[in-house]
Structures are given as structure tokens and as C-alpha cells.
Amino acid sequence: MATKTALSYRIQGDTGEWEVVIGLEVHAQITSQAKLFSGAATAFGAEPNSQVSLVDAAMPGMLPVLNGECIRQAVRTGMAIGAVINKWSRFDRKNYFYADLPQGYQISQLYHPLVGEGTITISLDEKDPNAEVKAIGVERIHVEQDAGKLMHDQHPTRSYVDLNRSGVALMEIVSKPDMRSPAEAGAYLSKLRSILRYVGSCDGNMDQGSMRADVNVSVRKPGEPFGTRTETKNVNSVRFVMQAIEYEARRQIEVLESGGRIVQETRLFDPDKGETRSMRSKEDAQDYRYFPDPDLLPLELDDSFLEDCRASLPELPDAKRRRYEESLGLTAYNAAVLTAEAETARWFEALLAESARIQKKGEQEVARAAANWLLSDLYGALNRLGKGIDESPVSPEQGAELLALIADGTISNTLGKQVFEIMLETGDAPGEIVEERGMKQTSDTGAIEAVIAEILAKNPNQLEQYRGGKEALFGFFVGQTMKAMAGKANPAMVNELLKKALS
């Protein structure tokens, strides 16, 4: 049984409570049109071995040439988490044999990484402004090249090698062992993914392999030294990371409580069974025979390069969330949801900018209406259609026009929902829909009064009951009036005139 409160988490074993110690090594593919040391393309889903240069294939005599854009993106990522940027760094060779590693070594950075220590702040409930927060330390970010991929499903007895990923630039973002629950690890990974997407240094598409986590787990009795850890490789979703931690922690506790010992090893996570299994014994740094890469000079960064990197950073999610709450007056929940993904924040800001341009109202009033519409009407429609916000059939400009028609009384909220459904189907502008289909809201007092008089005449029993004290029937008369006017009557005016007629 696991017990938890806020940011605490314990697993109850036969011998008492156990604490879980977690660290993540996240491999994030750097956004770049070319690989780390060659000009080969990096597009996802290309035909096997169609994006391989002579350098990637390790042909004799080929020398690596560093892609400066990859370094720039890694530095910007380090700056986004407040990390130390090392002006001097060095590439090392990590030697090991594998069929998808044509060089027989990987070019990486062990001893002198590009980025040093930083911090990522997490909350287990981003929507609660009073929730506890925790700072998770980042030990380093180093740049390295990816290996290729073995394909085991192309032939009944053979495996094929696809070198499209060989040489792709990766950031390895290594956390400190600061996490103590699956939920903390999930929050950390989600927050890191959000930052990477805001910065634009990685697309964060875990299902495509452009971001994946190696999960280090150990257990101990609270207050005791760290236990022996295992590393579960290449877990490709937040949910699977949390499941892998839960399973691995319980497995280790069972081993220890039965008198066994934990072996430092590399494991794999089986998402179908929700369990980890042994892959190989864990190597140490000396097993890889690291040494400085003789084909690459040390990397030295100057101040102007660092200044340009810092100046190019966007407003990051935590700062944006604070601005939404403090300047725009949004609720903590709405601000958290709107800033969780860079795409959502960009869509909202485009919607807000256009709404502010065409509406003559205060910034906070416009922002609250825009946020509520996006998170209820638009999100609801996109979920129904199975689309992301970047695939929305309605543009921010069209959304702003719809909100303006509702704000100035041209259409009611009810008519606005009908217009929105038509926009989703046709892609037409809301103003055109309202004009062509005669959906304008009426504020003609004479027309509304005539309909009210007719409704009262048709419902004498309800009228008598209302005047006898059954005030709940007021809603009945409102509904009947709106129905008779096909939802086009101004609701505020209907309420006002009905109260006058019923008094």
C-alpha cells in the first residue's frame, strides 16, 4: 500500500515504510534541420536509410563538423532553467559496440558538459495556486549524437539497421535524485517538456521518440543512505514513466524484504504488462573507455553568442502564468491550463490580441471572456473532433470576431454557440453566418412585448400560479419567450419586460 500527502510518498512493506529515490535522464532531440556533425536531414518518418551522410555511416576518412544551431538550442535550454552555461566544454568518445552504432563509439560530453547545474520547479497540482512546490535539481545538460535503430519486424530471422537517427543531435538532461514519488517524476517530465516546447529546442513528441526518459530508481528506509539503483531505458510517455517507477520500487522492496539484494542493472519497461524486466548489467564510466574526441576542438563560447541566446528566449510558462493571473485577472486554473502547452498559449494570445483590437472593453474583461470561451467551447469541440489546438478548424481571428458579436449584443450566448457549430462545419466567418442566416439578436421592445403578451395569454394557469407566489415559474416564461423568438431575443431585455408584464 502506498501512502501520500502533498509532496510525500511512502510504500508500506512487510518491514515498514520505504522511500523511493528517483532521478531522470531525459534525451531530447534538438530542433534542427541537420544532424549534430553532418548536414543530413532529420525529418521524422522518412524511408529507412534515406537521411544518412557518409559521416553518419562512419565511412573511412570522414570527419565531424559541429552544427552551431544545435549548440545554440542547448544553451537556450540551459538558460531557460537558470542553469550554469560553461563557456568551455569538450566532446568525448564513449566506446561500445552495437550493430546500430557504425563508428563503434558515440560522441558525447561526460567530463566537461555544455550546461551545468540548474533547477526546474514543479507543483503536483498546477491548477491550485496554494499547492506546495518543489525545486528539482538538474545536474547537467550535455550534447551528444544518437545511435541508429535496429528493425526486428522486417524479416523472420534477421534484423535490419536503419541509420536515419545516427548522428541526430540530442540533449541529455540529467536530473539530481531529488524526486520521491511517481507523481513528482511525472510533474517534472511534463514541466521539462513544456519548457522545451516554449523554447523551441525540442518538439517534445514522445510518441515519435524525440523525447524519452531513462528512469533511475532506488529504495531505502526513510533517513538511510541511498540504495542501489536500476536504470529503466527509453520510456516514452509521462504515464509510462510513472508506471515504471511504481512497479520497479515495489519490485525492489520485495527483493530486499525477502533477503535478496538489488543489482545495478539496465532494465526495459513493458507497457503492455506494466512491468520492468532485466536487459543487461549496468556499465560504469570506465567500461566505456571515455577519452577526448581527437577530431573535435574544445568548444569555446563568447559573450556575444550567450547574449544573443538569452535575448532570443520567449516568455516562459511560469512567468506567463503569473502575468495571466496578475495582469489579466484570470483564475489560477485557467492560467495554468492556458500556459501548460506553448501552442495553447500562442493561440490564446492571438485570440486576445484580435479581441482587444475589435472590442471597446477593458483588458481583463476581454481576457476572461476569451479564456472561458477557449477552455469550454473550443476545447470541448476539439476534444469531440479528436484534434489538437494547432489543428483547430476555427482561427483565433474568427474566434475573436465571434466573441465581439456576443459582447456587443449582436447575438446572444445561445446564438453564439449555434454560430460556433456552423463555423466548425463550414469554416465560414461568424459575421457572414449571422448575416446570411438571419441570426441577429433582436432588442425591439415592441416585438418582444407582443410575444410575451401572447405567451401569457396561452398559459393562464401558470400565470395564476406565478402571481399566487410560485416565482420559480419565471424561468418557464423566459424559456417560452426565447423559444417563440427562436433564441433571437435579447435575454436581458426579455427578463426586464417579463418582470414588468408579470407584476
Automatic annotation (TrEMBL):
EC number(s) reported in the record: 6.3.5.-
Catalysed reactions, as listed in the record: L-glutamyl-tRNA(Gln) + L-glutamine + ATP + H2O = L-glutaminyl-tRNA(Gln) + L-glutamate + ADP + phosphate + H(+); L-aspartyl-tRNA(Asn) + L-glutamine + ATP + H2O = L-asparaginyl-tRNA(Asn) + L-glutamate + ADP + phosphate + 2 H(+)
GO biological process assignments: glutaminyl-tRNAGln biosynthesis via transamidation; translation
GO molecular function: asparaginyl-tRNA synthase (glutamine-hydrolyzing) activity; ATP binding; glutaminyl-tRNA synthase (glutamine-hydrolyzing) activity; transferase activity
SUPFAM superfamilies (UniProt xref): GatB/YqeY motif, Glutamine synthetase/guanido kinase
Limits of the Asn/Gln amidotransferase domain: 346-502
Alphabetized UniProt keyword annotations: ATP-binding, Ligase, Nucleotide-binding, Protein biosynthesis, Transferase
InterPro entries, A to Z: Asn/Gln-tRNA_amidoTrfase_suB/E, Asn/Gln-tRNA_Trfase_suB/E_cat, Asn/Gln_amidotransferase, Asn/Gln_tRNA_amidoTrase-B-like, GatB, GatB_C_1, GatB_Yqey_C_2, Gln-tRNA_amidoTrfase_suB_CS
Coiled-coil ranges from the UniProt annotation: none
Domain of life assignment: Bacteria
UniProt cross-references to Pfam families, sorted A to Z: GatB_N, GatB_Yqey
Protein family according to the UniProt entry: Belongs to the GatB/GatE family. GatB subfamily.
Record HAMAP family: GatB
PANTHER family: GLUTAMYL-TRNA GLN AMIDOTRANSFERASE SUBUNIT B MITOCHONDRIAL AND PROKARYOTIC PET112-RELATED, GLUTAMYL-TRNA(GLN) AMIDOTRANSFERASE SUBUNIT B, MITOCHONDRIAL
Subunit details: Heterotrimer of A, B and C subunits.
Function: Allows the formation of correctly charged Asn-tRNA(Asn) or Gln-tRNA(Gln) through the transamidation of misacylated Asp-tRNA(Asn) or Glu-tRNA(Gln) in organisms which lack either or both of asparaginyl-tRNA or glutaminyl-tRNA synthetases. The reaction takes place in the presence of glutamine and ATP through an activated phospho-Asp-tRNA(Asn) or phospho-Glu-tRNA(Gln).
Protein name in UniProt: Aspartyl/glutamyl-tRNA(Asn/Gln) amidotransferase subunit B
Lineage, uppermost ranks: Bacteria, Pseudomonadati, Pseudomonadota, Alphaproteobacteria, Sphingomonadales
